[in-house]
Amino acid sequence: MSVSVRSRRFGVVSLLVLAMATAPAVAMARVDAFHDVSLSPEARAADLVSRMTLEEKAGQLKHAAPGVPRLGVPAFNWWSEGLHGVARAGEATVFPQAVGMAATWDVPLIQDVADTIATEFRAKYVEKRGADGSSGQYRGLTVWSPNINIFRDPRWGRGQETWGEDPHLTAEFGVAFVHGLQGSDPRHYKTAATAKHFAVHSGPEADRHHDDIHPSKHDLADTYLPAFEALVKRGKVESVMCAYNAVDGVPACASDFLLKDTLRGKWGFKGHVVSDCAAIADVFLPTSHNYAKTPAEGVAVSLKAGTDLICAEFGANKSSEIGPIVDAVKSGLMSEAELDQAVRRLFVARIKLGLFDPPANVAYSKITPADNDTPANRALSLKTAQASMVLLKNDGLLPLKAAPKRIAVIGPNADSLDALVGNYNGTPSKPVTVLAGVRARYPNAEVTFVEGTGLVGAPMNTLPNAVLCADAACAAKGVKLETFQGLELAGEAKAETAANVQVSWGRPTREKRQASTRWTGFLKPTETGVHRFTLRGEGGYRVIVDGRVVVDAWKRPADATPEGAVALTAGQAHAITVEAWQDGDRGDQRLTWSKPSQGAEAAIAAAKDADLVLFVGGLTAKLEGEEMSVRAPGFAGGDRTRIDLPAPQQSLLEGLHATGKPVVLVLMNGSAMAVNWADEKLPAIVEAWYPGGEGGHAVAGLIAGDYSPSGRLPLTFYRSVDQLPPFKDYGIAGRTYRYFGGEALYPFGHGLSFTSFKYGQPKVAKSVKAGEAVKVSIDVSNIGARDGDEVAQLYVSRGAAGAPIRSLKGFQRVALKAGETRTLTFELDPSALSVVDAAGVRAVEAGPVDLWVGGGQPVSRPGLAKPAGVFARFAVTGRKVLP
Description:
40 strands, globular, 883 residues, 21 helices, Jelly Rolls, 6-stranded mixed sheet, alpha+beta, TIM Barrel, Rossmann fold, disordered N terminus
């Protein structure tokens, strides 16, 4: 043996001794190339995979990958969610929902947010890391964010998770988010980001497991794919998640065109591909795509196309189990080399995270659990929420000229935690609702809160445990709970005492439940008057009070949550029986009520006594979100069928306006709202999105004028869905600001300020050759009386066939003091000047290029003035096809 070889062996052994002493991520020290930190991640992964058995390799394809103790490989859970903060892992800093972050139009700010989220993931990982280095679900370092699908239609419930409807805005934010999550260390990721859902995925939610989308070649190249290409090429994203739907007859996770030809071939992607959860089952299930016939065939065709990791499947016949994967290899459906390739990619990612290196070699190993949810992180959340607020309308009421003496805060989202956090969320440790924010900002005012209405019905809340009794004398608290097998309250029941009328099952692990339940006891209300009752959740139910059937929804209508009303007397014990059935593998049921003091009459009375009325309404992720059953008019399966304010909210809002008091409408939602009546009648409207844990402070500060609003819409607020093509039509013609020719209520890019801006004449070359970049410089001045941020937006219009009306190709958020002027420079690369033809070919065509640089699009309507800005024009000579 040569001296150099002996020295190298000695060095590797020394590193392993150090790793054993200091790194719980290495469960068993081994003398092999896999642990040699001087080798590339690819060489180390190849060495490890070469030592694994077929069965061990097959086990690594599931998101909850088992450990391989004999090789010192700990178990690893790949599933973590970080859309706008660490999700589903307890308390964490909750930032505004993604669509709200997009409204900041502030790329550096959002990169800071993503960096902070990565820090908190590291903190959560260290906090719960196993002694062998294993990680738990939602507390790992592989983050399945960002969602860069195009929000093409406001009806899509998951549009709130995206960066809006524009490919350029989405790409810029997506790249920044990836850079923030993955960090800047040249050797190791801070966390590994995932671009999802690839591709052409945006509802309807109810049909996503079997829909086959046939996008035009133009729409693919022009709208659906550019953001993914940017995250691969510029963002260097580690992972891509393939979607549920099929594209042109082939499930996305089994698509050679998407994964092999486009992602890995044309774009040169080197990372790993993870399926959306249960998407591989969709490949073979007869109720879904039925593209393959068995789990083994499903996993084989997916891996051969380029999928590497299988997220959770439910029920029997899981393709992610070891058996079907081994069978696929042994039966020749795929080769062991193809399996090896997928497993190698997965271990490369884990090595790049530093999970097999000594902590001293990993820059991020100094992060501790104390770095989660810090005051500084919450301050960043507040800053982001403030930047996301969009002032949709203002007739001069805002900012308030003086502190009101009496404020009525009304509406279903005024004191709602759900309205702060959106979906895929963490739990804020110190949540500030709008009500709390107003009270904190105006400590000397008399602030009255009346909910007035629920989101889609009466203002329902869970019954407090204290009002439920086991006996008429209320000597004992709780109710009797009887649980029957089957759905008809028949047979022998299991009896026990429950604190409340509620049941939950299938969390965190799904479990099939077919049961029926009966709760009996007494209810002792604290108010006299008419109370309304309903049972939230899935399944049929009855509510019986004092022997009278108040609600009978045993055979529940498809689009309703029936309610019933009954008069109750404060302090009197009323006999109550609730019966319900449960059928499914995950769900919740809970009895809710509405008390007399919560209703519309009380809200209007409070408004009459106030100097200022804040109505805080909109939606929550309980109505719009991912594949769920929502029983309310205007909603279906997690999506929306209408985009106006739900009828109960609209009715109350009109009643508040009729009092003659000034009403500010604060919207909290994740998608466009057609508030046509409010725009015509009310003096001020604020779009607050789902603003995160500090959202209440941001709303109150805007109203008070503590800062000038500067958020801009990342999507179009249409007047009605009647202006749009059918939801299931994936053609872009007639939708998004780029191809919508109608009059919007509020256009993409819109947002008002408390100050005014002026744009100078742009400086740009008179002509450029096709394929050359061009610079545009322009002076922007704050000509108002107060400081404020402007969002300068640059739009390009080309007259060529296939070109949109206009496209955003540059934007900058700039802080300007009163009277200050700054010169901004935009660089337009050849792609910014290009158009896509019907064949999907992108080219820079000869001819004029029209530019608009301003604080929004150059559009107006009665009641909405065109924003400040200027036009310019230059010419392109020649033609150049772009790759």
